[in-house]
Amino acid sequence: MSDQSDQSDRNDRNDTIGIDDLPIREELKGQSPYGAPQLDVPVQLNTNENPYPLPEPLVARIAERVAEAARGLNRYPDRDAVELRTELARYLTRTGGHPVATGNVWAANGSNEVLQQLLQTFGGPGRTAIGFEPSYSMHALIARGTGTGWISGPRNEDFTIDVGAAEAAIAAHAPDVVFVTSPNNPTGTAVGADVVERLYEAAQAAKPSLVVVDEAYVEFSHRPSLLPLLEGRPHLVVSRTMSKAFGAAGLRLGYLAAHPAVVDAVQLVRLPYHLSAVTQATALAALEHTDTLLGYVEQLKAERDRLVTELRAIGYEVTESDANFVQFGRFDGAEGSHAAWRRILDRGVLVRDNGVPGWLRVTAGTPEENDAFLDAVRELKKEQDA
Ligand SMILES: Cc1ncc(COP(=O)(O)O)c(C=O)c1O
């Protein structure tokens, strides 16, 4: 729920009863929902969205395809989304360095739903999942929502994965699902194929378990996709999204590539007709414009690199980034980063406090948005150094 609607929503309901007074599941008591602030400020660089609106020819094509779909809305959509999965497979084959067929691909409403379906199938009550933190907070939240126990695995000081410690954690806990995010959110760090190979081996020796490589930001990376690792690894999944590189966060379309048996397995938990005909039509239209959309990725990579250079010139530390965002610091612990977040917001720029003490994250926006951000942090630095 957005902050704007919070108050009116509270006014509409009886405040004497709270969530914890309801007979909800024990493990949900006292927890908070995912909640990146949605504030109405001029420069919004906090949720790693693509700042460029879809180009007009694509908007027109979406209108055409959706109109076509609308004529058939009296019927349920294609439950297996075959045309869409075929086009996604074609995209992955063309860009991922590995042949992917329709049967290797599954799609859902955002990669969050893909991850949820994976945890419903391979996690669940009595089972556990591990991620190496700080990482994408929804991995732990979706684990909790599906009744899967969460294990917080270690990272090095520089936010790279400590492979030896990660192998040891996998051996000690024998988790059912292992998450590897590459490039990682919020740090931006990409993971080498050798690391995933070792973690996969450790996970198979310990259980065997499902290894999920979350490649939400891979199109922004200098490193190639880890898709070729699917060869000979039936317990490996690569998850992707159209929310970032395709500039279509509002569409809600995520997908995975894996052995066809994994695709068959998630059918056991997916809701029938989960992907509306409108969503499928819109995603297909966007895929027709892949080359134009990926053109924006090149601009965003250049802006990301500019942010890194300028932030360092101002005097901030920056984590190496392979994504469309940059983690910068350091501030004085959790309080220092939150105070800095507030000071930047006071200047009309919304960045993200991911709860990593001493660090904040900024999404690469348009050149103008990035200039506004850089002006804000330049002033902040002067204040801090004064
Ligand atoms: C690492 C990572 N994975 C997955 C997602 C979810 O993306 P979506 O559900 O929009 O596909 C995000 C969104 O920020 C992310 O950062």
UniProtKB/TrEMBL annotation:
- What keywords tag this UniProt record? Amino-acid biosynthesis, Aminotransferase, Histidine biosynthesis, Pyridoxal phosphate, Transferase
Q: Which residues carry this modification: N6-(pyridoxal phosphate)lysine?
A: K244
Q: How does it assemble?
A: Homodimer.
| Transferase is among the record's keywords | yes
Q: What is its EC number?
A: 2.6.1.9
Q: Cofactor(s) for this protein?
A: pyridoxal 5'-phosphate
Q: Do the record's keywords include Amino-acid biosynthesis? A: yes
Q: What class of enzyme is it?
A: transferase
Pathways involved: Amino-acid biosynthesis; L-histidine biosynthesis; L-histidine from 5-phospho-alpha-D-ribose 1-diphosphate: step 7/9
Q: PANTHER family given for it? A: HISTIDINOL-PHOSPHATE AMINOTRANSFERASE, HISTIDINOL-PHOSPHATE AMINOTRANSFERASE-RELATED
Q: Mind telling me what this protein is named?
A: Histidinol-phosphate aminotransferase
A Pfam family cross-referenced in the UniProt record is Aminotran_1_2
Tell me the superkingdom of the source: Bacteria
Q: Which reaction does it catalyse?
A: L-histidinol phosphate + 2-oxoglutarate = 3-(imidazol-4-yl)-2-oxopropyl phosphate + L-glutamate
Q: Where is this region: Disordered?
A: 1-37
Q: Give the record's GO biological process terms.
A: L-histidine biosynthetic process
Q: Which family, according to the similarity comment?
A: Belongs to the class-II pyridoxal-phosphate-dependent aminotransferase family. Histidinol-phosphate aminotransferase subfamily.
Aminotransferase class I/classII large domain: which residues?
43-376
Its taxonomic placement starts with:
Bacteria, Bacillati, Actinomycetota, Actinomycetes, Kitasatosporales
State the Gene Ontology terms under molecular function.
histidinol-phosphate transaminase activity; pyridoxal phosphate binding
